[in-house]
Amino acid sequence: DDDDDIPQLSSQTLAALQEFYLEQQQREGMKTSQGFNQYSIGSIEEDWIRNCKLQFWYSDETASCLAKEAVLAAGKGGRIACVSAPSVYQKLKEQDGKDFSVCILEYDRRFSVYGEEFIFYDYNHPLNLPENLLPHSFDIVIADPPYLSEECLKKTAETIKYLTKGKILLCTGAIMEEQAAKHLGVKICKFIPKHSRNLANEFRCYVNYTSGLD
Question: What is the assigned CATH class of domain 60-207?
């Protein structure tokens, strides 16, 4: 039965989904009546249909903290890659920084509005990247694999290791600690990332360098 493959949403998730659509309608009304920054958090909304299986936006505080850490780790003139971490990318763009550059590798093609900084990315094909995206060309890679599975982490790790000069900032579930160490050599931080909506799984940050997240 094909219906067996259709994910069933709980009543709690459906209620949250209804709330989200109401909020989205209200935001769209504000966008048409007022100017807004295309790089601000929420200018591209969470895709709930996709995110029932994938990821959610970080809270504004968490996105700001991770963006600040990425800038410090990259250093002056540094290059930052955000792999499946759109809210951090948007927070970085809010800064309009001239001392760093950033790109976003993301499956959601809505981010193509950001032009050449957007790179379509499917973790199932971790090295299917543009030729001009040279290996080891980013001072830091911040990544949030879209699924809490070793397969997803392992494939995303291939992308991360291809891109980074060395520094890695990984955000994923606490249950992935052993796999994160295995595939990326990262250790858990004291800082606990928060999302704009409460998630059932505990999330943590992992790094392979001395960071400001401890």
Answer: alpha beta
Distance CA 20, CA 23 (A): 5
Q: Give me the residue spans of the domains in the chain.
A: 60-207
Listed in order, strand segments (DSSP E) in 33-137 are 78-83, 100-106, 118-120
Q: With contact defined as beta carbons under 8 Å apart, do 177 and 205 qualify?
A: no
143, HSE (Cβ side, Cα atoms, 13 Å):
34
Q: Is 75 left (phi over 0), alpha (psi -120 to 50) or beta?
A: left
**Which amino acid does the sequence have at 162?**
Y
CA distances from 198 to 4, 13, 27, 85, 195 (A): 27, 11, 20, 17, 6
Model pLDDT for residues 43-95, shown as the tens digit of each residue: 444 443 344 334 467 889 999 999 999 999 999 999 999 999 999 999 999 98
Cα separation, 42 vs 140, in Å, equals 24
